[in-house]
From TrEMBL:
Sample GO molecular function, one term: zinc ion binding
Source organism of this protein record: Effrenium voratum
Name of the protein: Enoyl reductase (ER) domain-containing protein
Keywords: Metal-binding, Oxidoreductase, Signal, Zinc
Family recorded in the similarity comment: Belongs to the zinc-containing alcohol dehydrogenase family.
Residue intervals of the Enoyl reductase (ER) domain: 55-395
């Protein structure tokens, strides 16, 4: 069904039923010329929002901005649930803004485009990650690293549009705030929209907009090479993607987990090369001092870094991707003695995200997921905290 928006009422009054019907027929994907002139007012869509810190997510009517000349209006079909959504709804990182519509893994179909849009047409399958804008002028932005914008990117939700070039900068009606993908529609500048390759299932590709790029970017940047040993700490959404992408890059992948229950998943479902109970392993085995060229730490809970640093080979890299609530600590000697590196990474720029999607299409990689209805979001949050999901929940927004 076409993107529903309040402009229909205004057009009905101004043009009459016959004229509106003719215009609305043009809004289908069959007529890509269309909605360059249709969406001229703020539009309303269904969403799920947390009305206060830690509160349950409930049905919420959300207002989206009009389609500007460089905007793409997207009918959201799927939205992934990331652990960071839970942290922000529960205000575990910092003070947050409410009502909050979470979601930075968005997969959908283009429903309308602005007059100056050149990258997309109505009917295209697209994705939106955790970035909606950036300054577009600093060294990082000009290098395609909007995620490291010097003055800070604009995030998909729980943030404000802060750059004058953005259509919602200082918008009094919308408060200049960002609202995420747990909704049925969104309007985004084309510069921050990615094309989803036809080879990828849209529901399975949606989590790639966060989980996929979050591991692809550091594996590429820190130079993972064929036949190198890669350790993956934690086997949630990020960990699963690290296994799949690491294997596709030609690495020898070992899953490091405290839970024996993860062995079957790692070896049989994700096809990791090996599995080890870590760091409690007592027996002699494949994991020990100096084993790994790189370890990606995807653990979101509090844990010690020391055992992982110790498991690195000389010149090895420990890349921290999870964000535990408490500060991480380690002994500097472990780094110095082996010329080892402790590093971090957060998502990726738009160009690199598109590159990652093409890489995943080439290797037929999507994120293993459980499709849920909107009424199951709160239960899904609790299950994510209990690590009771393989490996991402994806919301069917048509159930809102």
């Amino acid at each position: 069904m076409p993107f529903r928006c309040s402009v229909r009422v205004g057009l009905w009054r101004a043009c009459g039923a016959g004229a509106l019907a003719a215009l609305w027929r043009l809004a289908s994907p069959t007529f890509p010329g269309v909605a360059r002139a249709l969406v001229v007012r703020r539009s309303s869509c269904k969403s799920y929002a947390a009305l206060g810190p830690g509160g349950p997510l409930v049905p919420h009517q959300l207002q989206r901005r009009p389609v500007g000349e460089r905007d793409v209006a997207i009918r959201i079909k799927y939205a992934g649930i990331c652990h960071s959504d839970i942290h922000q709804v529960r205000q575990e990182w910092a003070e947050a803004m409410f009502p909050m519509v979470p979601g930075h893994e968005v997969g959908g179909v283009v429903q309308a485009v602005g007059a100056a849009v050149t990258k997309f047409r109505v009917g295209d399958r697209v994705g939106v990650g955790n970035l909606l804008d950036s300054c577009r002028q600093c060294r990082q932005c000009l290098a395609g690293q909007e995620n490291y914008c010097r003055t800070g990117p604009v995030y998909a939700y729980n943030d404000r549009f802060k750059y004058p070039h953005c259509a919602e900068f200082g918008d009094e009606a919308g408060g200049g705030r960002t609202y995420g993908g747990y909704s049925q529609a969104v309007v985004v500048d084309e510069a921050f929209v990615c094309r989803v390759p036809e080879a990828l299932d849209l529901a399975g590709a949606t989590p790639l907009l966060c989980a996929g790029i979050t591991v692809y970017s550091p594996l590429k940047f820190y130079g993972l090479r064929k036949k190198q040993r890669l350790g993956v700490a934690g086997l949630g959404g990020l960990g699963a993607m690290a296994v799949l992408i690491g294997k596709a890059m030609g690495a020898d992948v070992t899953v490091l987990s405290r839970s024996e229950a993860k062995r079957h998943e790692a070896l049989q479902e994700l096809k990791a090369d090996s599995f080890a109970i870590f760091p409690e392993a007592k027996e002699a085995g494949p994991v020990g001092v100096g084993d790994f060229d790189m370890i990606v730490d995807t653990i979101a809970g509090d844990h010690e870094l020391q055992p992982y640093i110790r498991a690195l080979a000389p010149d090895g890299k420990l890349v921290v991707l999870g964000i535990p609530p408490k500060l991480l600590s380690f002994h500097a000697f472990e780094l110095i003695a082996g010329r080892k590196s402790l590093a971090g990474s957060i998502s990726g720029g738009i160009k690199e995200t598109q590159e990652m999607l093409e890489f995943c299409a080439q290797h037929r990689i999507t994120c293993p997921h459980e499709l849920i209805g909107a009424s199951q979001i709160n239960e899904a949050f609790d299950r994510v905290v209990r690590s009771d999901v393989k490996y991402r929940f994806v919301i069917d927004t048509g159930t809102m």
